Every structure is written in C-alpha cells, then in structure tokens.
Amino acid sequence: xSTAVNQVPASSPEKCExxxxxxxxxxxxxxNSLNLLxxxxxxxxxxxxAFRKNAHDVLERWxxxxxxxxxxxxxxxxxxxxxxxxxxxxxxxxxxNAYHPDICYLMQGDKVFKGxxxxxxxxxxxxxYRNGLSIDETLRLYAEQTYDRLGYFDCWDLAKGQLLDxxxxxxxxxxxxxxxxxxxxAFMYSDNHVHVGCLMDxxxxxxxxxxxxxxxxxxxxxxNLLNGPVFPIYPEIASRLGVQGSYLFKLGxxxxxxxxxxxxxxxxxxxxxxxxxSVMPDYAHVVERALNVIGSPT
Length: 298
Description:
Order of helices and strands: EHEHEHEEEEEHHHHHHHEEHEH
Shape: globular
Structural class: alpha/beta
Radius of gyration: 21 Å
Strand content: 5-15%
Helix content: 25-40%
Number of helices: 12
Largest sheet: 4 strands, parallel
Strand order of the largest sheet: 2-1-3-4
Number of strands: 11
Distance between the termini: 40 Å
C-alpha cells in the first residue's frame, strides 16, 4: 500500500523535533497520530517502498533527526553502522491473529502472491485446493467442526501474549489499552491491519516514553487501512469472541464485498494459473496443519 511521505517544510517556523518513522502498512496511521497528538515533534514517515526510493536523501539528513522509529523487520533498510545508534528505537507493529486465524500468505518467487483479497489467503481454501477438493467440498469446510480441529478457537491468549510481550520488550505497556480495544468490538481488519484508534494509543505510549507532552486528543486521523481489504471474522469464531461475524470479504480499494463462494472460486482460479506458488515461511505451520486436517477423515 503506497503511503504519502510527510516532511517538515524547510521554511517551517515551528521549532519541532524532527523524527523519522520507517514502518510497515501501519505507517500512515501511526505517523499521522504522532503528529496530531504532539506539537513538540514532527514525524517524517515512510513505508518500505518509499524509504528505498528516498533512502539517499533521508540518510544524508540522518544527523538532523532527533529520534528514529523503525519496525524490527525493517532494520535491514538502515546501514549497519546506524542501526545501533541511541536515537534508534525499534518499535514493533501491531499483529494479532485471533480474529483471523485462517489467514496465510503465499509467495511467487520472492514476491507475495496476490489473490482476490490481495495478500490475504485462506489456509482452508489453499489446503483444500492442494488436497484436490472441489469448490463445493471446500465451502462445506467453513464450519465449526473444521475450526475446532484447526485450533482456531484457541488463539486469543497466545495472540494477546505475543502482542503485549513484543511491546513490553520495546519498553511500551499496552496492557490497559488492549483491555479497552477488546471490550469495544473487533479491533483488527486482518492479522496486521489494525483500527486507527489502536495506532493512536500506540502513538501515545511512544510519546510518553519519549517524555513528550500529548497536546491534543480530540480527533483521530483518517483510518486509511479501512480502504484496504478487510478479511471477515467467521461467525463461529466471532460468537466465541463476542463480536460481529460474517462471510463477507471486503475488497481492497473498494467499498464492496464478495461472498465466500466467490472468494473460494477466485482463489482456486488463481492457484490453478500459478502452480509454482509456495507458502510464506512464517505461515508454513498454519498451512501444514490445515493440509493435515483437511486431508484426514473427521
């Protein structure tokens, strides 16, 4: 997802501390939240593609940044000698799969393979295709018995623990905020696309840790991730978690849904056209379990 770069104008009279943020798809919401919450800083923010494009210019201005926030998985974008600088803070991204435990990612060579929901694929659909099931047989798998056998009902505690531990290691306590998030409906659009209110809370935690005043809390920035694909929370999972569920898949870049049958049909068509695709290593265990469950008798 492309992200506009937010830079301080050279002629700006404001005496703000210049910060640099290099982050994943959450970069726009987090960067805008930081800028909106505090008038003591101004955050120049880049997603990975934009940073690579502008790296020469940004790194030439390295000494001008008072603080650099970077996602741990993006450290390799910085030269080795800069990664351990005191002003570099490694800030984790919000990742939480308890609402969407069926999501997996596939690869085509060294690129993420895209299907009807962009980067997001269903481990059930992909494993059913790999096991030679028909579309009708696959549709019948989207049911409580399958989710139970796959362990989809048991993801909450582990996902919560991993999220809070990741932030605790970065010196940020999101425990109270997580309670608020989980009491007010589902807070994720997918396993890595989060509601902007959560990014606001994350920005507040960063500002407090940096000793910066939170000047304004009246409004939240635009929730740009809602414009992307929104993976449904399957009703059988949603009922266990006390949130609304459906089998409606919101398409990326559109305010339109497709139903489960179309999602599975288009996924199968994509897999047939690209038999060379593979599973992203981080999701190999998810797909392996689904392959075993779907390929074995109930």
